[in-house]
Amino acid sequence: MELCFGWFLLVASIPAIFAQDISHGSIVVDGTMTVAQTDDNFVCATIDWWPHDKCNYDQCPWHYTSVMNLNLSHPFLAKAIQAFNRLRIRVGGSLQDQVLYDVGNLKSPCHPFQKMKDGLFGFSKGCLHMERWDELNRFFKETGAMVTFGLNALHGRHKIKRSLWGGDWDSSNAQDFMKYTVSKGYQIDSWEFGNELSGNGIGAHVHADQYGKDLVNLRRIINELYKGSQSKPSLVAPGGFYDEEWFVKLLQTSGFGVIDVMSHHMYNLGAGVDPKLVSKILNPDHLNKAAYTFGNLTHIIRRHGPWTSAWVGESGGAYNSGGAHVSNTFVNSFWYLDQLGMASKYHTKVYCRQTLIGGNYGLLNATTFVPNPDYYSGLLWHRLMGKVVLNVESHASPFLRSYAHCSKGRTGVTLLVINLSNQTNFIMNAQNSINLKLAANEQNISRDSFTHSLKKTFSWVGTKASDDALLREEYHLTPKDGYLRSRTMVLNGIPLELTSTGDIPSLNPVRVNVKSPITISPLSIAFIVFPNFEAPACG
């Protein structure tokens, strides 16, 4: 009976086997030089201000995940953050420029956000009470979070016409808030100024010369408040969409050493309601378009502000709360991990995902706090990919995307491979460019010695290779039951689910002979760790 059943499985699988294409090729990693470097805490996530009645496309996916009312005592939340062992969290979002801080000599009424027809983004001004700020900081300390806080950059200004706001920034409320924060000993890694006020803005905008002038004032306040402090927070701006002329003008107006970080936002998949979201995610040509923004920002920083660095301060793929049944499913990890890889190649130091929790694009489910697939993608990146970016080349197919970094906290190199093809099974050999050069330069060798030299170029090996069997680590990511819109990610055949105590599950690799080829199944993702890859750039 067992023999018959096994024969049935074999026969049934034949059509699937022949339906797949098989493509052989190589991935060449150059470990001799550094392409770019990220921050140690490259992966970042946001906590937004949106209240529960923020709705898009006849759905209200935010629930109670606002800075104001997020349940900080939920055990899943703390454990999800602690698993990163220092997750960077950005507190900010569209409503931050309407937040008043209930401290000091605040003259305006301080009430919660309310729906308001003529208000910015359809809401009134909101209030952050210091009791809540105290709660948030206790939570940040307990979970080991690194905090970037976005300040209200519209306070004191007035609307001139349409979305243009003018006048000097009234810094009094922000200064009182920052002074309170310092007095309580709360650790803020960086202060960010404004949200999406650059260029033509989203809802509102401010001219770059005025913005630069206000940043000089904010820099003075930071210097005064943190005078004598061992660690001074960075100043991050503008937290908006990239506009070359506006960004250049901002750097020129603010001047040398004022802005530490140029932050920009990316929503390169378009509207959350777009029925073509999945096809965009799986289209390499569409994913490649983001390189234009990354490359241009790198260029203007080098030319006009070499004292600054670039961050993606907010990115959720699809705007207006993300795409329902897309942004919170496995398929979104193709976009998310590709963004992390591409951004790091273009000298991006930090990449903040919109959101940690809230909307359709949260790393955590907004009501159950259970991790969505992208949470595990971000966690694996954070644990495996070091800050040194290496060059990697593969001409197998535009649908096979690859990124390489020095491994995190250990010797060797970690490779991220993304297969966007729905029918091609890629069988790849990882090659070390050092050995390719050595093989090319060898002179007057016999056929046998040439064959041996060529064989050495495959897999992880460097010039110090031995014939001893060594193992590499592989983390293969697929959707549960092969369904791209599954909310359950599968690691090496095992569904990733919280333990009975709500802990993040172990993310265990499979170990494979380092000399064997790498197999990347259709519509799958893999992290490959080569523990002894010879890479001088990794130290």
From TrEMBL:
From which residue to which does the signal peptide run? 1-19
Gene Ontology cellular component terms for the protein in this record = extracellular region; lysosomal membrane; plant-type cell wall
Bilayer topology: Peripheral membrane protein
Subcellular localization, per the record? Lysosome membrane; Secreted
Which SUPFAM superfamilies does UniProt cross-reference here? (Trans)glycosidases (SSF51445)
Identify the main location.
membrane
Sorted UniProt keywords: Glycoprotein, Hydrolase, Lysosome, Membrane, Secreted, Signal
Query: Which terms in the Gene Ontology molecular function aspect does this entry carry?
Result: beta-glucuronidase activity
Q: In UniProt terms, what function does this protein have?
A: Endoglycosidase which is a cell surface and extracellular matrix-degrading enzyme. Cleaves heparan sulfate proteoglycans (HSPGs) into heparan sulfate side chains and core proteoglycans.
The record's similarity note reads:
Belongs to the glycosyl hydrolase 79 family.
Q: What is this protein called?
A: Heparanase-like protein 1
> Which species is this UniProt entry from?
Gossypium barbadense
